[in-house]
């Protein structure tokens, strides 16, 4: 078994070295590979990545800015692992939690795991717009897709590779979260949630998702309920 860790990156010169170090340091009983997709960063992120020569790290560079969803889709084209996890590069999520995130899959309980911030612990600045926005989107997900989850927008989404077979993803930006959630539920998969820790950050620290992305997420939740 191998874990493929997809890391979409855009303008993370302050955190990219540390997140790579943290991911590599996680002790696992299975092999892992790291696929980093730089989405045409304009700071020193590319310069930092260009100096990495580790064999367990693949680095792909977009030649223009396409968005997080596009970066993840690019990463999916390069994975060789049996289990996939998405890892943001901003240090809001802690890679040390990989073992408990993949254990339900390794143990045969499920094929899809979401790391829930709302069943775990949230620290850092409390952005009420994000808190209530996510809760509203999660509530709508429950109504539309009849599955009881607490954190639809979490970055920590973990899948067996077979789950994504025959799923055609179209997301370009932050619409990845509602699209993948809608499509895996419609394929009949049950999402198993694991409590995680989360350290939020502010916009001046590099946070990128805004209320506009929340409105778009709502649109895509409704769209994919009735279309493919």
Report the biggest beta sheet as strand number plus sense, adding barrel if it closes: 7 strands, mixed
CATH class: Alpha Beta
Q: Give the uncertain stretches in residue-range form.
A: none
Helix % is 25-40%
Give an account of the 3D structure:
This protein has seven helices and seven strands. With 228 residues, it is α/β, with parallel strands linked by helices. The protein has a single domain, classed as Spore Coat Polysaccharide Biosynthesis Protein SpsA, Chain A. A seven-stranded mixed beta sheet has the order 3-2-1-4-6-5-7, with helices on both faces. The longest helix has 18 residues. The two termini are 31 Å apart.
How does the SSE layout of this entry go?
Layout: E1 2-9, H1 16-25, E2 31-38, H2 45-49, E3 57-61, H3 68-76, E4 83-86, H4 98-106, E5 112-123, H5 128-145, E6 157-160, H6 176-186, E7 192-199, H7 211-226
Parallel strand pairs: 1-2, 1-4, 2-3, 5-7
Antiparallel strand pairs: 4-6, 5-6
Helix pairs in contact: 5-7, 6-7
Write a brief structural summary.
With about 230 residues, the protein is of the alpha/beta class. About 35% of the residues lie in helices and about 20% in strands.
Descriptors:
228 residues; seven-stranded mixed sheet; alpha/beta; Spore Coat Polysaccharide Biosynthesis Protein SpsA, Chain A; 7 helices
